[in-house]
Amino acid sequence: MAAEGRPISYQVFLDSFGQKNDRILALWxxxxxxxxxxxxxGDAKEAEYxxxxxxxxxxxxPGAVDWIHRLHRxxxxxxxxxxxxxxxxxxxxxxxxxxxxxxAIVSAEDVTAGKPDPQVFLKAAAKLQLDPDxxxxxxxxxxxVEAARRAGMKSIGVSRTEPLDATIAVxxxxxxxxxxxxxxxxxx
Length: 188
Prior knowledge:
With 188 residues, the chain is mainly alpha-helical. The protein has 8 helices and 5 strands; from the N terminus they run ααααβαβαβαββα.
């Protein structure tokens, strides 16, 4: 954003985490920003993310990859429901070596409304052929936890800095008990 003459602080970046570029950039640049400028900046931002991820790799949240592999091995259906572009999701899955553990992907291109709207989670549930009340969302952003709530899904909120208003809030997925997902699914 500094290259656009609108540098942002790390806190401003964190406050927009988990949202689609059109919403983020309208917040950062003003509601009257042109669609062309949003696309240009958004495309550049996402290309830089992919370049960095491919060059330097990614580090998953503690416990995340273990849970993904375990749930896959135990026969749980899993989906990625992301506000990011599909290319970013593909790079992330490859970088973390979990690309074969997921049954469905829903990305920014598949939805018209970003989180906290529940559309991304509802589409993921539909792709998995599951009712929303049989889904558990794992989220690290407040807007994602709110989207899960609006979708009628239980959630696990992961944040090292402040607890998220999720069904279960943890600082790390490594802190989850072995039966956390099964217990959540069996709650009324």
